[in-house]
Design goal:
three-stranded parallel sheet; binds pyridoxal-5'-phosphate; Aspartate Aminotransferase, domain 1
Length: 385
């Protein structure tokens, strides 16, 4: 429009605030990532090239563990971990009912039975007591999930006597700490995901299994190549669970940024907490902000509030250009594919209540200034404040 136009100004709608904007992050590592990709492409070692081992060493150092094994996804990292413990038909694996499907899917895929527990409403995580109570002589493993970036109490769990091996599902929580120790240092194995929306995301699928146990590390290394060792000789049945060289190259470039990005997420979360209090939404009981345990270093892969009338609020925010998501609308024990396990509505009331109330808000590190204020004020507007 020419500067001297006399037509009336059209109202400018504020720019959308997506739940996550990966392009906003790209600028901080784009040149390095493209150079790393170019090196892999030129070398044409696309499977188990040197970048995989280099990234695994960097990841193990970062997490303070002896071994990090790259895997094709967080799901396959969990599957391989259970296979390393020889989980199979007749076995039980105890886990939370409030998680992404993969946590339970891998148990069922091996012919074992997922045994679910409820969650602590304050942290969305299963408590050590609940997990312990679900253990029977058939239990082969326990999988606490560190949901949204905050660790479950694996410190207590890992020192509970008589417990089968603990596998930390840390798909959402790489870099999180509990009592000053990072995820990966408590469980027999710890599984992380590099799905692009995770705090350390690749350019596609990827994952890793971490362990301090050299015997498990060796098993995992064999399982991820169809159980083959030496090549073309198979003593066990594994799968193709390898991390692509290209993904490893990109992840190695991004890993040094992980703590800086997590710090920005933590600052955004603290600002949300303060804004929600100032808005009066908290004192009126309309918004419950995510409580953080004093023992936890939360890395806020998601900032998840609880609200009444959640679906209507999510719709209203969407209409005003604000992205949100519901993690998760249905607990695992009520998924149709698990109907045969015999669970029913009301079995895990806290998880079921969370499914009706939770809403994830934008918390990504590069959120433009003013975005948090706008999200909170739109939520206030929805509730008539
Ligand atoms: C808690 C949890 N477990 C497991 C997974 C599976 O990871 P992936 O998507 O990399 O297979 C995810 C990913 O969304 C997750 O959030």
């Amino acid at each position: 429009m020419p500067l001297n136009s006399s037509s009336p100004a059209t109202p400018v709608s504020p720019s959308p605030i997506p739940l996550l904007d990966l392009r906003a992050q790209l600028a901080s590592y784009r040149t390095e990532a493209l150079a790393a990709i170019e090196r892999v492409v030129d070398a044409q070692e696309m499977i188990m090239g040197p970048e995989v081992g280099a990234f695994e060493r960097a990841l193990a150092t970062y997490a303070g563990v002896g071994h990090a094994l790259g895997m094709s996804s967080g799901t396959d990292a969990l599957l391989a971990a259970l296979m390393a413990l020889d989980v199979g038909p007749g076995d039980e694996v105890v886990t939370t009912t409030f998680s992404f499907f993969a946590t339970a899917g891998v148990i069922a895929r091996l012919g074992a039975r997922p045994v679910f527990t409820d969650i602590d409403p304050a942290t969305f995580n299963a408590t050590p007591e609940a997990l312990r109570a679900a253990v029977t002589p058939r239990t082969k493993a326990v999988i606490p999930v560190h949901l949204f970036g905050q660790m479950a109490d694996v410190a207590t769990l890992s020192t509970t006597p008589g417990l089968p091996p603990v596998i930390e599902d840390s798909a959402q929580s790489l870099g999180a700490r509990l009592d000053g120790r990072m995820t990966g240092q408590y469980g027999a194995m710890t599984c992380v995901s590099f799905f692009p929306s995770k705090n350390l995301g690749g350019f596609g699928d990827g994952g890793a299994t971490l362990t301090n146990d050299p015997v498990l590390a060796e098993k995992l290394a064999i399982l991820r190549v169809h159980g083959s060792k030496p090549k073309y000789f198979h003593h066990v049945v594994g799968g193709n669970f390898r991390l692509d060289t290209l993904q490893a190259a990109v992840l190695a470039v991004k890993l040094p940024h992980l703590d800086t990005w997590a710090d920005a997420r933590r600052r955004n979360a603290a600002r949300y907490d303060a804004l929600f209090v100032e808005s009066g939404l908290v004192s009126r009981g309309l918004v419950v902000t995510p409580p953080t345990s004093a023992r936890a270093h939360h890395v806020y892969n998601q900032y998840v509030i609880r609200v009444p009338d959640r679906d209507a609020l999510a719709r209203a925010l969407g209409e005003r250009g604000i992205g949100t998501a519901v993690y998760y609308p249905r607990p695992l024990h009520l998924q149709p594919c698990f109907a045969g396990l015999g669970y029913g509505p009301g079995d895990f009331p806290e998880a079921e209540r969370a499914c009706a109330e939770v809403l994830a808000l934008p918390v990504y590190p590069e959120l433009p200034s003013g975005a948090l204020e706008r999200v909170v004020s739109e939520i206030g507007r929805f509730y008539g404040l």
